[in-house]
């Protein structure tokens, strides 16, 4: 087994380095290896198959993946080959969202993120929307302490002096690689304004900013130009189409998995790797992402001619399974932090008899049902009124659920670390009072972008509501049935949501402040609670184990004469892939 592991690792390195020694060919072409990843989400340590916590049982079953140590191993091997002449020169680029997604980050914030990124030594990173999760004050020291440049060309920072004066935050860098100038320009989705802690950063459109930077690079005689950013696959393709002079787009944000042929693990391919976009001039511009959570490392081998045009391109993402060794220097950093993190992360909250599915961005999921039921339960335990509660409804954005809980054995323990990986965000819950009109607006907002490539995490999981959507109707009129659970009744039951009814609804504090573009709730009367969704879920699991949450038809989709729980039978191919994949985006 040890021999097989080493053989597979060796083959992975060979795929990175190739066999040719000459990197500037007689015909003037220049060979470059680009390694890239995106949406690492603080998965510093290796993870389970679906990017949750890797348990001892998972390790014994050979079902642990990714982690910064495996990324570092392959990057170092490629760079070593470049230094000895056995491989081409290497660029390692990261397309943002290093923050948020593990107990490690929950405890150490920017400090641990900076230390691990510095250990990987990327040539450049772009910002991701989650880098703003702790506001500007939680981002500025991260940028300041990185040893590589941080790129974003479309930010307006005149109201944010902490970032405006940060020398390490740049629009563009130019690297000299074997005498070839390579320009790398960063970009970040303007929707960050709605997806992160409120701040004064403003944005211009990515394409406008990139076109301006392309002109600057052209004036400097830079022939090879790369866009590195975090706006989602649909925007990446639009950038490739509309930004003249661009040679390559490396993106993130939508955790898009691109692959040619049969996929190597549980992910479904959203398109070929790379995906080509044709510009009006006829030039083909490749676009890549590398899924998320450190499970894959993207690799592109590119030959450029003397004019900086791509003449040949090959490659595929590398699955970082347990056949890929882990870099000992990264392991040493993990061990340094592990004692403090593991102290609470390994605390057992309870057990589950079933897979807890966190793919909650397009459909009802049993993990979403568990969390929202926990929110209602935890509030009801403290309620002292004359009824069973006065807040029978809880809602939570699917994007707030960051991983599944799937272990190699069933039943399995649910640890605090598992739940921290699922619910890594800070902030307590809030109870908002609203009428039925606003509640229906919230439900409409949940599916306003459903079925599009660039939908965000706003799709709602819910307890105390039953909703049927018709996605063939235009956004704003897709709710065809909405029923709510009563709170004044002796036996809870459901009835139609009426416009003038008054409801108390539980939700995350982030959402209550208008996050994910739920602006209709921002100014409503609110009651701040002394517990978070994480605390509520821990409380519930401790008291109800073993748990076995199910799909109950809380969210349904109407299509013709049929109603289903998974987005309808005639959605676009992309929607169906999203519906059935176990990816957890943004």
TrEMBL record:
Signal peptide segment: 1-22
Name of protein: 5'-nucleotidase
Coiled coil: 200-227
Record's keyword annotation contains Transport: no
Presence of keyword Zinc: no
SUPFAM superfamilies (alphabetical): 5'-nucleotidase (syn. UDP-sugar hydrolase), C-terminal domain, Metallo-dependent phosphatases
Ranges of residues in domain 5'-Nucleotidase C-terminal: 350-522
Gene Ontology cellular-component annotations: plasma membrane
Keyword terms of this UniProt record: Coiled coil, Hydrolase, Metal-binding, Nucleotide-binding, Signal
PROSITE patterns: 5_NUCLEOTIDASE_2
BP GO annotations: AMP catabolic process
Xref: InterPro entries: 5'-Nucleotdase_C (IPR008334), 5'-Nucleotdase_C_sf (IPR036907), 5'-Nucleotdase_CS (IPR006146), 5_nucleotidase/apyrase (IPR006179), Calcineurin-like_PHP (IPR004843), Metallo-depent_PP-like (IPR029052)
A Pfam family recorded for this sequence: 5_nucleotid_C
Protein family per UniProt: Belongs to the 5'-nucleotidase family.
GO molecular function, one term: nucleotide binding
Domain Calcineurin-like phosphoesterase: 34-254
Reactions that this protein is recorded to catalyse: a ribonucleoside 5'-phosphate + H2O = a ribonucleoside + phosphate
EC number(s) reported in the record: 3.1.3.5
């Amino acid at each position: 087994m040890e021999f097989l592991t080493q053989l597979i690792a060796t083959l992975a390195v060979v795929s990175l380095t190739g066999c040719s020694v000459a990197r500037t060919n007689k015909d003037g072409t220049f060979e470059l290896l680009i390694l890239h990843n995106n949406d690492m989400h603080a998965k510093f340590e290796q993870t389970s198959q679906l990017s949750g916590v890797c348990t001892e049982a998972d390790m014994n079953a050979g079902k642990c993946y990714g982690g910064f140590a495996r990324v570092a191993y392959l990057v170092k091997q490629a760079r070593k080959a470049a230094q000895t002449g056995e491989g081409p020169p290497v660029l390692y680029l990261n397309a943002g969202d290093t923050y948020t997604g593990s107990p490690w980050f929950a405890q150490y914030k920017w400090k641990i993120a900076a230390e691990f990124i510095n250990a990987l030594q990327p040539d450049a990173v772009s910002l991701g929307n989650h880098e703003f999760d702790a506001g500007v004050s939680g981002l500025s020291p991260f940028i300041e302490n990185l040893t590589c440049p941080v790129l974003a060309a479309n930010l307006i920072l005149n109201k944010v002096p902490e970032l405006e004066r940060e020398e390490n935050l740049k629009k563009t860098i130019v690297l000299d690689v074997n005498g070839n100038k390579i320009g790398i320009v960063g970009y970040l989705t303007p929707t960050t304004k709605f997806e992160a802690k409120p701040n004064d950063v403003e944005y211009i459109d990515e394409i406008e900013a990139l076109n301006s930077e392309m002109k600057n690079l052209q004036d400097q005689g830079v022939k090879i130009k790369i866009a590195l950013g975090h706006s989602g696959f649909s925007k990446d393709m639009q950038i490739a189409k509309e930004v003249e002079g661009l040679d390559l787009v490396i993106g993130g944000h939508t955790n898009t998995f691109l692959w040619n042929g049969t996929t190597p693990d549980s992910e479904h391919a959203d398109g070929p790797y790379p995906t080509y976009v044709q510009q009006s001039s006829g030039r083909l511009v490749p676009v890549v992402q590398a899924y998320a959570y450190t499970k894959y490392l993207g690799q592109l081998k590119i030959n450029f001619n003397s004019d900086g045009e791509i003449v040949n391109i090959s490659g595929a993402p590398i699955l970082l399974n347990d056949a890929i060794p882990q870099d000992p220097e990264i392991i040493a950093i993990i061990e340094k932090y592990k004692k403090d993190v593991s102290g609470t992360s390994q605390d057992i909250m309870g057990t589950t008899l079933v897979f807890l599915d966190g793919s909650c961005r397009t459909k009802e999921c049993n993990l979403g049902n568990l969390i929202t039921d926990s929110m209602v339960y935890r509030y009801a335990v403290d309620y002292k009124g004359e009824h069973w509660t006065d807040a029978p409804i809880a809602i939570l954005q699917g994007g707030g659920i960051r991983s599944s809980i799937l272990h190699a054995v069933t039943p399995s323990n649910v640890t605090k670390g598992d739940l921290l990986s699922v619910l890594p965000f800070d902030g307590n819950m809030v109870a908002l009072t609203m009428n039925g009109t606003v509640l229906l607006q919230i439900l409409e907002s949940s599916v306003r972008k459903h079925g599009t490539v660039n939908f965000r995490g706003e799709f709602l999981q819910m307890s105390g509501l039953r909703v049927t959507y018709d996605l063939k109707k235009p956004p704003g009129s897709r709710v065809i049935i909405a029923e709510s659970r009563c709170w004044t009744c002796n036996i809870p039951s459901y009835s139609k949501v009426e416009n003038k009814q008054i409801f108390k609804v539980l939700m995350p504090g982030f959402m209550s402040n208008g996050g994910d573009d739920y602006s209709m709730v921002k100014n409503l009367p609110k009651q701040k609670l002394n517990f978070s969704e994480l605390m509520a879920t821990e409380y519930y699991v401790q008291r109800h184990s073993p748990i076995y949450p199910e799909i109950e038809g809380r969210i349904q989709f109407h299509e013709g004469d049929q109603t289903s729980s998974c987005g309808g039978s005639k959605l676009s191919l992309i929607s169906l892939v999203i519906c059935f994949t176990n990816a957890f985006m943004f």
